[in-house]
Amino acid sequence: MIPEQPDLWFLPLGGTGEIGMNLNLYGHDGAWLMVDCGVTFPKPGRIAADGTEHHRGEPPVQMADPAFIADRRDRLAGLVITHAHEDHVGAVPYLWPLLQCPIYTSRFTAEILRRKLAEFDLLHRVPIIEVETGQSKQIGPFSVQWLALTHSIPDPNALMIRTAAGNIFHSGDWKLDEQPLVGHGYSPKTFTDLAEEGVNAMVCDSTNATVSGHSVSEAALREGLMQAIRSAEGRVVVSCFGSNIARLHTLASIARETGRYMGLLGRSLINMSGAARAAGLWDSSDQLINPAHLGYLPRNEVLAVATGSQGEPRTALRRLSAGTHPDLELEAGDTVIFSARAIPGNEEAIEALMDRLKALGVRVIAAEDADLPIHASGHPAQEELELMYRWVRPAIAIPVHGEAEHMETHADIAKATGVPRAMVGRNGDLFMIRPVPGIRRQIVEVGRLGWQKEGLVRVE
């Protein structure tokens, strides 16, 4: 299956019909362009989007099977990573030996990627080309431009993919945040200019398509977090996603104002903050203390930020709840704030974690129960999707990054804003954008690979 010069194709191998494990291919003029290469962390007992049930004993890290493109890697022009979340970049160290192509991404994402590659002894083998926002790169027959958008991580980018056959706008993960606090913002003109040029298809994030209204800005969380921390009498532990550097800045500022010292508990938090420093995205006034010192401070001077908001095993918050963390021990009267919402499938693990904390006499504040917002999603709600479609005005809407309900709702929103056609499919479907739009269902066999000590294995 080779795209010819008049062809412009979209072929998802992961991330369409599910949230996570993103791996997308664009085909044109004998070549393929890959966008994102991510992992997922399956939960035993949960039914996946393809109908399979995860069970105990499965590999804990899984990713889309790249067999289709690995068999054609001589036609793979390159891999573009839109941002540094695990479901978009996490599979690169596992799969790059099968692909062996150059990687194009922003500075912060490159910093995260280098740390991952070093763990696999691949750092000096993988060519990484750093790209500035607004810049264009010719990658085979694809001219790719990096466009500024906002998300819950620094330096996310949408892509305008231009070819001789037509143009595609690939949103990546995004929201419209007027005050993202860290990294670049966005300009509506960026996207209205695309409409003037002409966009044949818009491939777009569906995660929150079922959520009405507009997502909350990162800047709007300060008041709620300040209220929760200022009212606490003992130690305060805040659990949030480690990649949210803006949230860390807000917490560091609150620590200064409330007379607390802030330390990070958990490898991913320390890794992300180090990458932010290296990429010039860490405010020098945000001082962190060595986490080993937290246990020696008076209780009312401690503000720890910990991994484990989803109840994951072996994370800092799980160890704190069990009294086994080497740097800090919680006592009755301390406070734990969950500055994150539950990812579907994690509800039972989070509830069990909260119960263990409450049994210690710890005050627990969940994002769902807080009087003021203490968490903001990184994905667009319905009003944001409507705005983006009015700005870009694509000929075709292709919802991705969501389960069936999310993508169907997304398609309805696109059509209601005047998009002539929406195409909804799933991994393995070939979306033909040019010359004649249409879908060929399940044209490519798809599946999952898992990582175990002995290497990659196929997940049945």
TrEMBL record:
Residue ranges of domain Metallo-beta-lactamase in the record: 20-214
Pfam families found in the cross-reference section: Lactamase_B (PF00753), RMMBL (PF07521), RNase_J_b_CASP (PF22505)
InterPro entries hit by this protein: Metallo-B-lactamas, RibonucZ/Hydroxyglut_hydro, RMMBL, RNase_J_2, RNase_J_b_CASP
Keyword hit for Lipid biosynthesis: no
Record key words, sorted: Exonuclease, Hydrolase, Metal-binding, Nuclease, RNA-binding, Zinc
GO molecular function, one term: exonuclease activity
Cited Gene3D superfamilies: Metallo-hydrolase/oxidoreductase, Ribonuclease Z/Hydroxyacylglutathione hydrolase-like
Repeat listed as a keyword: no
Protein name: MBL fold metallo-hydrolase
